[in-house]
């Protein structure tokens, strides 16, 4: 019974007895909200729990559980059935409701008597609720008046909501019975009626019944005494406080305390003392528990007295004395520091501080309370480690909630002072809990935002960078917003004029943008060109343009047209052009064309066509110096193709041709020159280039190259008839035409060159000599060379010995043709000097001597004259020598019989042979001479006939040999 009373007292005092329980009982309270409504401790409520406990203990329905474990199991089964019973109470049978009702009361009573009551405080509250509601339904369905009245009384006593009505119910029950005392289980029932009756008549009846009840146990006597004290406090507290009345009350409380010491149930005795202490505190109006005149309080009273003191404090709080309550709680929690009760007191202390803050908005004071508690629970108390650890976490969560709420208000508000306060408190909070990084991220985010709003950009940057460890993209970008202010850097990349600013701050901004770009790449996102623009421009303004170059050059291949990509491309191109990095310039220009990027410089679109041309030409020059002719040609040909109207185009074509020539690709070189000449036929560049290209191809053995070279010379001759170098072009083309076997056209050019007095004498002589040879071999022979004989006569030994000899050979032949005896003799004298060195001289000299002999210049009588043998022997031998000379010359110069000169020579030789035969027949010569002459003549005749009539191909070979010989002679000249 005593345990029942003590449980109700415990419930009234906010579960104070659970101080010895696990810490979660206290910590589960929602810190940070307003305190729950405080129960007003009137006289009725002060001891009403004792009355209720007595009622239950005197009325013992059902069977009590034997063990705490058994009671818990019964409670759990009951809890499962309870919901469905209440939900369908109208359908439930009377028996089911009564069974559940009795079961709930039975378990409730067991918990009241149990030493483990404090472990099941939550279950006690739920059981009381079950009894209240189940009792209501049983009462409504009960038909028997007596039982119904009993249930009604039980139901009302459990509710504790209408104590006066409870007294009336007991009175009605008593009036209906003749033997009223027998209907009550104890004198406490009468006391209920006596104290709670709302009418004087029922109160009188109750006193009469009570007077008949003379035997009271110690517990009942204690209740009666406590009821009396509480009634006195209610009606006359001012009369007894501070005087003898107060001392008398204290003595009565001591007497009640002594009278209950023998109660065996420890829980019941503890609750009696609990109520005694409460009344004593009400008498004293003091929270100094050390003054309490109770032995049990002094010995172990911390756990007992703390909740009672707390009740007094809460009354002060309810009265609006928050500061006083706050200070009291602080002192109280310090006094109970070694006990788990300190946890609950600390949280009450915090709750009051929160209430005070809600009233006056002194966030700094509340933060001091939090900091005090944080420091207090920094190291768990070894006596209740688990409790203190959990409390520390709850304090942190509450503290964080307060800070975040304050931050939200400050961010939304325009009050600068509030923002500063929020910033300072947030900074203090993050410094305290920096080890709980994940738990304070939201606070740090808001703190960084507050820094930024307040203009504390350096602090904001540091905070955002720290937060970027969790979310690089988001917070590095926010850091960049603040750092731009410090660096005086605009929100958009400044592609125009760069603003002035602190270099160190801009270096920091570089690091931030580098981190942003890196985070985007790591996340495999498309890198923002705005970020690339900022980063590159910052590199540039801090003297690190090489880094900007690397950054932009990697990004541009995938860039889309836009202001930032255009600006980056423009700056890169400008730098490449200035540094003469032509390859980079060209590659980037081509890339921009493909990506449709319009490079800009200082927000002006660049004329890339012009700069691109310059870059191509300059790179070609570099390639040429490095002997990379193919690469140079590619660049220059692109210029030629893309810039058809450029004034430098002629020079570029010239350079392309020269590069082809250096590569050894003469065909392409000559084609290029021909293109130049076709497009610019009368230009000085074309004129000079024809001569240069002619020098490249005139000595080639390739038929195609020779033809192209010849055609270039033809164009020169046609387009520049008055040019001083026309003679050179004619001669060179003639040589090429000879190689191409176009002898007639070659002879024409040689004749024109020989007769052109603008050419040097040496050149004229050379052309005349070649012309004569061509005419003799392929033309009209000596008839066509008469007009160049005057030129040949100009030959001098200084022009070259071979040419000199050749000239006099021709002159000798010409003199022979004309039978100019004096000229023939003069030429004979000149040629005699070279007969042994040049075989060609023998040919001419032989014909010359033959002619002289034929016309009796050699005094040699022919055989038709009868002379003696010995007398004519020398002449015959001379004839033989002449024959040998002529034969040798004929073999060297004779060409196919179509050649008139060759036919004439044949006739002459034939006649000479006949004459020789006649001479041999008329003169008796030595055997050797005769045999030799006969053999030579026979062989000659046979060979000649074969060559001319049967084997024409051999004559062609002889003609080729003659042509080659003449070329060697010309080269030697």
Automatic annotation (TrEMBL):
Gene3D superfamilies: Tetratricopeptide repeat domain (1.25.40.10)
Protein name: Tetratricopeptide repeat-containing protein
Pfam families: TPR_6 (PF13174)
Domain of life (superkingdom): Bacteria
Record keywords, A-Z: Signal, TPR repeat
Signal peptide: 1-23
Organism: Pseudobacteriovorax antillogorgiicola
Renumbered ranges of TPR repeats: 613-646
